[in-house]
Design goal:
2 copies of one chain form a homodimer. Chain A is an alpha/beta fold and 250 residues long. Chain A has helices spanning 31-40, 97-109, 130-144, 158-163, 183-189, 207-215, 231-245, and strands spanning 7-8, 11-12, 14-16, 26-27, 48-52, 58-66, 71-80, 88-92, 114-119, 151-152, 156-157, 170-174, 195-199, 219-222.
Chain lengths: 250, 250
């Protein structure tokens, strides 16, 4: 780490901001970020932190102004060019708060592009806290070195998802019933791009939902092995396998 | 589900017991299991539950006796033959309590055979609660349909791990630095069996540890992509990929 660079045990400190970033640009972090910088990291004038906004690359910025509650940063130089994650979506049935936080954080680290909650018939959790989902996605993007944050979408019902599906995108359906081919094998065989992954709620998809999925040509049913995976485990395992077969871990 | 079968949203109720299982055998669940059966599931005489012990297959058993605080079950018939998970170990640096619970649960669902905590130089967490680890492994085994629970081992230091390593077992080292080949590719190329996966603590392995790993012929360094994964994410992603390339998701 270079001199004056703010770090935590996981690496250097990176902050996601909305503002444009360019040489000399002055950026005022939001209230929560300022609190973190000043009171948790105890930043001093001249300390450096990395900024990214999903468009302009990653910039090294210096604390150029500070009061008790706020501070300002000035961009100095690009430390990493803008880059994109592979184009994969995760469509998942909302789950309880703690595993939902976990799925959003882990899926972000694993390089997901879009997080789409899907309310299926057996979905028990009725509300999705979108602000919390976005905050988790931003924090995980900052810590994982991503240059962009995933899109966090408002929930769709299962029927809405299928009715509005962009049919050129393959929907990898993690089917815990029946005899779908193993996911890695199915992904290798699949010619079309791009992809999305669909995982069900606790208790799985209903029979009618499975039938609807099997009836669509853009749906690719796959198996995640002989054991029963929790909803959050299935989502993360599927993303890891996708990255290793079709994504940027290849 | 058949009549009188106790279920929860994730499926049928399965209990891990130590006792031998055979037709007619009477099994007395431990205090916690009895509490769960009687007070949470409100089991009644004649209700059925599945039992497994890692040796004798899965048995359908009936509640044949109950008082306020205890009950007895009688094995009726085998509902699944005994089967093993693939032979893969997870060697992981201990992490904080919540992510540690998560790793143990998820790794168990993902079919790990052995859970081996490894204290590396940057490991911050000094104590491993083995009883808690085993309880988490048992619960996840019950819920995932596994026929056996993973071995939960006492921690070893990094040096002890390497000094006592069974050299015929490949140690897949998830290396976040350097230019190791992608994990799926490295696993396909690897001829030897069996395998173990090694993941580091927050902040990764130290330089000297990485050098020690690279010096051993049984170590296979691999990459898990361009983003920084948390310790728990790396462990689960690596296990999922292993299952899909060399395990029983293949």
């Amino acid at each position: 780490m270079s001199k004056n660079e703010l770090t935590y045990p996981g690496g250097k400190l990176r902050l996601y901001v909305e503002a444009p970033l360019a040489a000399g640009t002055r950026v005022v972090p939001d209230e929560q970020q300022s609190h973190y910088l000043l009171n948790v990291m105890r930043a001093r004038l001249g300390d450096r932190v990395s900024l990214f906004n999903g468009r302009d690359g990653e910039w090294s910025a210096r604390v150029v102004d500070k009061s008790k509650r706020a501070c300002a940063l000035a961009c100095e130089r690009v430390v990493a060019e803008q880059s994109a994650v592979p184009d994969v979506w995760l469509c998942f049935a909302p789950i309880k708060r703690t595993p939902a936080d976990y799925v959003v954080q882990k899926a972000t680290e694993l390089g997901v592009g879009v997080l789409q909650p899907v309310v299926t018939r057996r979905t028990i959790v009725s509300r999705v806290n979108l602000a919390r989902m976005r905050a988790n996605a931003i924090e995980a993007s900052e810590q994982s070195g991503r240059m962009s944050i995933p899109d966090t979408c408002a929930p769709l019902t299962f029927d809405e998802l299928l009715a509005t599906w962009p049919t050129e995108r393959r929907l990898i359906f993690c089917d815990e019933v029946g005899a779908a081919p193993p996911m890695a094998q199915a992904l290798v065989a699949e010619r079309e791009q791009p992809f999305a992954i669909l995982t069900g709620p606790e208790g799985g998809f209903e029979r009618t939902e499975r039938a609807a999925l099997h009836a669509h040509p853009f749906v690719v049913p796959v198996s995640l092995g002989p054991r029963i995976l929790r909803a959050d485990t299935a989502a993360l395992a599927a993303l890891a396998i996708w990255q290793s077969v079709r994504g940027d871990w290849h």
